[in-house]
Write a structure and sequence with these properties.
By secondary structure, the protein is an alpha/beta fold. The chain is built from 11 helices and 8 strands. Strands 1-2-4-3-5-6-7-8 form an 8-stranded mixed sheet, sandwiched between helices.
Length: 284
């Protein structure tokens, strides 16, 4: 494991393999370990980079929640790639990491060979409620530590994972409950509690020309409508929906996720993943 210092904050990262860079950004409940099954698979062909966002040890945990905003997370990713001397990469993210991936693609499209957006856009359909829930969860962590978040892991979007892969789910929960309580509370307040709905970025997304793959589990209800929105809005977006699967699609169905991403990357690199052409004929 190595570290990059970005805006005075130490960010932990790990590189595996050689080739064109492929970067993975984790979700709120995850960490770089959430991508282990992707690292094992893609490092055979790519220079794979995973990292822990600020607030996730061994990365630094800034004291103020105001240092955790979504724009800062984009700046951290930019700083990491600059530290590594990377001018262009495939960028992938799940959930919170997917929001960062979208933001990075809009801010730095010239650095993105492609974008993989998994489980993105939660809260976009009910943003005020989403922000309020984030603040309430941050308060719960402040008073009860990470143990107070056990209920967060028991939601519908993760129920299928628990049934399919009890050992994998137990490992995921173990890692989550070991997170910094300060970092998690600050992430709730700074990132989850302030980020806008992705629908507010429609005009920018319509102009984005970077190839995008959107992947959702069909039981990840808060992300289904945002995923369809991205498919309809981003000219070079494609949408894959994985059946009987919840939020953490990359660890719940790693083989299918890796196959979808691998095929997408191959088509991008061949130049055959292109913007939609609706033609001039009848709708049907």
């Amino acid at each position: 494991m190595d570290f990059a210092t970005i805006d005075g904050v130490k960010i932990a990262y790990r590189e595996t393999g050689e080739g064109f860079p492929l970067v993975f950004a984790h979700e709120f409940a995850g960490s770089m370990e959430s991508w282990d099954q992707q690292v094992n698979y893609f490092a055979r062909r790519y220079r794979v980079i995973v990292y822990n966002a600020r607030g996730y040890t061994p990365s630094d945990v800034p004291d103020s929640w105001e240092e955790y905003g979504h724009e800062q997370q984009v700046a951290d990713l930019y700083g990491l790639l600059s530290h590594l001397g990377i001018e262009e990469a495939h960028i992938a993210g799940l959930s919170m990491g997917a929001y960062t991936t979208i933001g990075f693609g809009l801010a730095h499209p010239e650095m993105c060979r492609s974008l993989i957006v998994a489980g993105g856009g939660s809260g976009s359909d009910n943003v005020e409620s989403f922000h309020a829930n984030a603040a309430a969860r941050a308060d719960r962590i402040d008073s009860g530590g990470m143990e107070a978040m056990r209920g967060y892991l028991g939601g519908q979007a993760r129920a299928r994972f628990r049934h399919k892969d009890p050992a994998g789910c137990a490992r995921f929960e173990e890692l989550f409950l070991a997170h910094s309580s300060k970092g998690s509370a600050n992430t709730f307040r700074g990132f989850q509690g302030t980020r806008p709905s992705i629908y507010t970025r429609e005009a920018e997304l319509r102009e984005l020309r970077v190839p995008m793959l959107v992947i959702n589990g069909d039981e990840d209800e808060p992300c289904l409508a945002p995923g369809l929105f991205l498919k309809r809005t981003v000219p070079a977006a494609g949408l894959a929906v994985v059946p009987q699967t919840g939020h953490a699609v990359n660890i719940e169905e790693p083989m299918m996720f890796n196959q979808l991403v691998g095929e997408f990357l191959a088509l991008v690199e061949l130049g055959t993943w292109r913007p939609r052409d609706y033609g001039t004929g009848d709708t049907w």
